[in-house]
Amino acid sequence: MTDLYQSQRAMRNMRKAAMQRGVIAVLDVGTSKIACLILRFDGPERARAEDGVGPLAGQSQFRVIGAATTRSRGMRFGEIESLNEAERAIRTVVQSAQKAAGQRVDHVIACFSGAEPRSYGLAGEHALADSVVTEQDIARVLAACDVPDLGEGREVLHAHPVNFALDHRSGLGDPRGQIGHRLACDMHLLTVERAAVECVLHCLKRCDLEVAGIASSAYAAGLSALVEDEQELGAACVDMGGGATGLSIYIKKHMIYADSVRMGGEHITRDISMGLSVPLGIAERIKTVHGGVHATGADDREMIEIGSDSGDWEKDRRTVSRTELIGIMRPRVEEILEEVRARLDVAGFEHLPSQQIVLTGGGSLIPGIDSLAAKILGQRVRLGRPMRVQGLPAAATGASFASAVGLCLFAANPQDEWWDFEIPAERYPARSVKRVFRWFRDNW
């Protein structure tokens, strides 16, 4: 078994222990900002509910008692570039959140957006010894899944059983206790670059934090930005962050695909900085206050004062039209959305019963981006904000907090994963068959 597999199991146990103590922190380590929310739970985690394998299983009530954000340092493309700078930023935001909560926190669940995620669809079958499906049968059918060669230096970040079939009945959420003879399972496996994950874990340990879980930002954003019907019928969540744009596809309340485009809001800011010859800070302000992707006749007449402080009075008092600014921003936004479209095509998104696409993340706040996305990605596009959770401050309810809020839901209501079961030793069978996403066309 790999080191990360063992550490994932240890992290799951640590999460349960932290929740029994009542307080845990969630940390969204992004390229442009790092957000920390501190959660308080209402006592020990409840027994697993009857809903089965899914976000409602073992549901636990929580409230946010502290929140803080800080500008990211030492991050690029959603990955840590400078460990010392990233450590300082994480220490700063965790201390601020602890001060707001009036409570010290030792355990943290983190998410990040980089590390080149890759998705695999796996399938396994197992003949039942007894006619009643037990926990051991689930473990054995997961062990029977055909694991492909993941490649050198890659680790499994998420491994969700997303569909069970008992004899000829498919689409089962949780077959435990049901009667049958042959159990089949479809599993979604998400792998990432091992070095990037280990860098995040090492950085958190240097901050004197115990890691009680780690997740993909794209997965967390989908949990909070997609409403229940979208998660059930099929939808894609596009999380437009600073350094990377995460993509996750959900159906039957499970993530079945995730990917990442190594472009985001910071690339738009850099384009403005180069196009207008202004510092990055001023380019970010211009983008936030005056940005857009659709130019009208009125935008020719709307002049934006650059307001730089280079010391050259004439250069500092320059103005540009909003049309010129849009002309700089739009090509990059189109490029990001075209890349997302290519990833959706690879995933076979058009075969889902519903083609809903939800844009979230800080980049989705650019005015007019939803109508541009509708032209590039397909007609059914909406802007998504994270669902409301108890105690969440108003400043943390915007689209840029989708991953942080999703991480709260991930902490409180974890879906079953591979490491939650006692997998037999014969986990990796000799055969290795890549079945990438054929199964959701066949089964749904």
What does this protein look like?
The chain is α+β, with helices and mostly antiparallel strands and 444 residues long. Among the domains are: 121-191; 266-326, Actin, Chain A, domain 4 (Alpha-Beta Complex), CATH 3.90.640. It has 14 helices and 18 strands. It has helices at 3-21, 83-101, 135-143, 194-206, 217-225, 228-233, 265-276, 280-290, 297-301, 313-316, 322-347, 369-377, 402-412, 438-443, and strands at residues 23-29, 33-41, 62-71, 75-76, 79-80, 107-112, 118-127, 154-166, 169-172, 182-193, 210-216, 235-240, 245-251, 254-261, 303-305, 319-321, 356-360, 381-383. The strands form 5 sheets. A 5-stranded mixed β-sheet has the order 3-2-1-6-11, with helices on both faces.
